[in-house]
């Protein structure tokens, strides 16, 4: 599943990530793409604190891309 959070600032990207993860099954991966770079750290921290695996988290030319395994 891919989640686009570009054009939003915290806490919206984290809340949208939580909502998406809540709708997914264990073992599925969520790709979060956004342009508000502080959200990279906030989403990563949220995912880890809630028992999800952050497969990768990287800054990109236009923002960030995070892959989270539920």
Automatic annotation (TrEMBL):
<dbReference type="Pfam" id="PF01206">
    <property type="entry name" value="TusA"/>
</dbReference>
<dbReference type="InterPro" id="IPR001455">
    <property type="entry name" value="TusA-like"/>
</dbReference>
<dbReference type="InterPro" id="IPR036868">
    <property type="entry name" value="TusA-like_sf"/>
</dbReference>
<protein>
    <submittedName>
        <fullName>SirA family protein</fullName>
    </submittedName>
</protein>
<feature type="domain" description="UPF0033">
    <location>
        <begin position="2"/>
        <end position="70"/>
    </location>
</feature>
């Amino acid at each position: 599943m891919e989640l686009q959070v570009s054009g939003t600032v915290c806490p919206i990207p984290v809340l949208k990530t939580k909502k998406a993860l809540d709708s997914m099954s264990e073992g599925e991966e969520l790709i979060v793409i956004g342009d508000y770079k502080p959200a990279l750290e906030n989403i990563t921290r949220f995912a880890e604190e809630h028992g999800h695996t952050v497969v990768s988290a990287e800054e990109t030319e236009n923002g960030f891309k995070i892959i989270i395994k539920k």
